[in-house]
Amino acid sequence: MIEQKSKYADLDLGSHTDTVLEKLPVEVKDWAESLPWNQRRYVLSLCYTLCASTPKLQADFLDDYTADGLVSKMFEDVDTLYRVKEYLIRFRVKKELNESDLRSYIKQFYIHSAQQARRQTDQYLESALRFVLNTEERNNVFNYILGFEFIKIVFQMSWLQHERLARLQKNQLHFIENYVKPIQHAHRINGLIVPKDERIFFAIRAYYVQLPNISYRKLIELVMASFSTEMVTHCGFSIGRHCEALRFDCDYIYDPEPEEEERFPTDLQFIH
Fold it and tell me: Model's pTM, two decimal places?
């Protein structure tokens, strides 16, 4: 009993409040400590209600509660917003990046982050708080948007179009390894493209020019399942840092008539 009492006495000596508040930014810690008792009750009620809510309710609440402020901050970064829009026009993506688009991407960003952490949707709160409090992570949303839209485009290409796109790049093997392989793997395992006569050298392979039929909702799910937020964000950063970092020629990539040598296996077609 003496040892047990001593144990509890040691716990009492430490400040549980300080331990929790030390994890907060200084401004938040000072604000929380300055609140009078009646306002502290409001904070506790909000914390309890939010933590007890279902993941979907958490996501909906956080979207409503935080998105307006985050969107206004993003609209203040006029230069970055304009640059991202220019790249989307280059990729022929019909997206205005208006308030509705940005709100949707903000919500998707922290849901994507939460899902990759433990493959559980109950991490919305943690991801959203990190997004709200971390300026650098908030700025990454523009890179995330650009990367996500580009990967969506590649997901909807035929394997022949993948080859053409890869041939445009300075580092073809890097592009294939990081983008083409994961996407073609997703095509295979989801039955979107089923290779036939893949290993027959002189076979004219119809599947290679087949366009995957993917619904919009399925497309979003596949991109989020195949690429982490870090990979998507890095993709957008790579595209945006230099105009030649990623070469994209729509007329060449989407030419409906395969050249004669494209009807048969090439070096890039065997890299899987």
Answer: 0.77
